[in-house]
Structure formats: C-alpha cells, structure tokens
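Two quick folds needed for the group meeting slides. Do the first one here.
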Amino acid sequence: MARTIVAVYDSQYQVKNAIDDLIANGIPQEDIRSDDAKPRITVTVPDAAQPEIAEILERYQPAHPPGSPAEPLHTANRPR
C-alpha cells in the first residue's frame, strides 16, 4: 500500500530544496507534487519508505499549519 505524505513549509525556497533532496535520494519525480500557490509538497511512497521520506522532509523545517496536529507532516494511506 502507498502512503501520501504532505509537508507544508514557510517558503517556496524550502519546497525547492526538499524536492531536490527527494529526487537525489531516488524518489521518482512523478511521485512528488508541489503547488506554486502554496509552499507544500505531497509525496506518494510505499509504506516502507515513509520513515526515510519523513526524515528528508523534516530537514527543511516544515511549518505547523493553523489547526493542524502538533506533527507537521501529515500522512494518509492510499491504494496504489
């Protein structure tokens, strides 16, 4: 099963750096989504890769969106 991880940042600069790092670590570009209007990344990965992806995204200090839980990275299970 695949997992979707969403990280929200304060700037597009953080988004660009996190995406570059994900790609450098072998995550296919087609599994990475970003939004030019909002500093956010969505990554779809197998369950087994979730800890590694979360660690990469945490390097760029994701923000805590208003009303979100204390954990800045949000995950959801998705069938692949």
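Then this one, please, same format:
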Amino acid sequence: MENKIYIKNKWGDTILEVPGSNLSGADLSGVELPDADLRGMDLTGADLRGARLDLASLRGADLRGVDLRSVDLDRADLTGAYLDSAIKGGK
C-alpha cells in the first residue's frame, strides 16, 4: 500500500493528496493551497514556484532550501518555520 499525505484546509477538507511520506523535494509548483494546514511539514527543497499558500499555516514547517520568491504567502503563518537557506521575497 502506497503512503500518501493528505493536505487539509482549516475546516478539515482534503485539498491535495500527495503520494509519499513527506514533501521534501516534491514538485508542488503552481499548486493552490489557500488555508492549508502545513504545520510541521518537511518541505525542504520542494519546488513551490508559483504556489498559492495565502492564509496557510506553516507553523514549524521546514522550508530550508525552498525558493519562496514567486510563492503567494499573503497572511500565511510562518511562526517557528525553518527558513535557513530559503530564498525569500514572496509575492
């Protein structure tokens, strides 16, 4: 049986199903995940180009090595997120 990650919004609805057991290095370019609950997720090296993460909870998420320049992070919660070596400057 294949492992999957279910990304949910703040109301508990599944908004994206991703194969695998973590999101490290995942191709999430262009995904639309407003209000997503990504707390504590390992997103190291993930491709988030053009992703929409407005209002998402990224508390404690590992974003090391992620290029955030074209990511919509409007009102996203980055409290405690690991941003070492992340390229910052989101939309």
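Slide caption for protein two: The two ends are 38 Å apart (CA to CA).
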